[in-house]
Amino acid sequence: MQKYSISIDPDKTAxxxxxxxxxxxxxxxxxxxxxxxxxxVVAEKYLNEIIGMKKSVPAVFHKGKISHQKGIGPGSYPQxxxxxLLKILKNAENNAEYKGFDVENMVIAHISTxxxxxxxxxxxxxxxxxxxxxxxxxxxxxxxxxxD
Length: 148
Hints:
single chain, alpha+beta, CATH 3.90.470.10, 3-stranded antiparallel β-sheet, 8 strands
């Protein structure tokens, strides 16, 4: 059982957790900030637009060296992160449906992303040397709450 960063009433909420996903922690922070508070249907549509590169995510965190997008300022299209986030959102939606909640009236009450384990790797270089080529992972948790 995963430990969530917030304790919330389990009778009124549904949760889902993505563990050690192979996507950028920085991109996932911006994407999580963008979809927090949205209804499930709206969030799924938004994530699908990001995957199709029709809409960009505004950069709120870690926005140095990010190019400007028309109308929003610094932003990007984190497609890989959006795919993982869409899977976790579907999982939370299925958990809510299993608990008997009305899925149409569920909103994202809490979403948290943070860095996971770093997978060590090396890249061979000239003259018998090597440098690090590590891969970052991300943990993502979503908590849905029913709104009247």
